[in-house]
Amino acid sequence: MKLTLEVWRQRDAVSPGAFETYEVTDATPEMTLLELLDRLNDQLVVEGREPVAFESDCREGICGCCGMDVDGRPHGPQANTPSCEQHVRSFQDGDRVVLEPLRSAAFPVVRDLVVDRSALDRVIQAGGHVAVDAGTAPDADATTVGYLTAEEALDFAACIGCGACVAACPNGSAMLFTGARITHLAKLPQTRAERGTRARSMVAQMEHDFGPCSTYGECAIVCPAGIPLSAIAAVGKERMRAFLRNRAD
């Protein structure tokens, strides 16, 4: 297969960027997008040119590093699939494919297709954790959790933090990401002591760095973990619960 790639090139966060055109003439349908970029970089290195910078780690849809925009869509044409599992067979021989970094004001470009997603880390740091005094943690099986509750909590915990939901949202919202984190912890008995504090602090940090929910649901379509839109509803629910309980206190 022959593919023409329009790739965003940008030296650093402050330098202006622009698209550059490359051709890969020996692509195969079973290649992933990342393997296609590997092949392109092999060509560029042989030619003595600077390879394209992009992120990857596990290449198994687990780590969330690989996110990029493909023809204007986070990750690529296949719904709910990370970039590392999007395949060249989604394109036709001779197609022109546009590759650029995830587009969001909250994700400044570091270099080429690499963006800084530390804004998501700040949401986690604000409350996506459990504080336990050293030496006081109970045994793992000391507190029982019902099967359905555990499964639902794990479903929300599956979020890989790739940032595709933010890039897909016209307002650059992180509601799906934040809702997944809040809901996961709110459902478990071991984490309920900090439930209200967690909701207030995480939502405040989210609103500081990201835009409001667009209510269109683009985020759920591109989410590789299949986080449902109910996670967005949970943000308002948990914040209201924290507010009412605080007033009652």
CATH architecture of the largest domain: Orthogonal Bundle
CA radius of gyration is 20 Å
What is the averaged pLDDT score? 93
The total domain count is 2
The CATH superfamily of the largest domain is: Alpha-helical ferredoxin
Please give the alpha-carbon distance between the first and last residues: 66 Å
The number of distinct β-strands equals 7
GO molecular function: 2 iron, 2 sulfur cluster binding; 3 iron, 4 sulfur cluster binding; 4 iron, 4 sulfur cluster binding; electron transfer activity; metal ion binding; succinate dehydrogenase (quinone) activity
Pfam family, one: Fer4_7
Protein name: succinate dehydrogenase
GO biological process, one term: respiratory electron transport chain
Report on this model:
This protein is α+β, with helices and mostly antiparallel strands and 249 residues long. Helix content is 37%, strand content 11%. Strand 1 (3-9) and strand 2 form a beta hairpin. The radius of gyration is 20 Å and the shape is elongated. The mean pLDDT is 93.
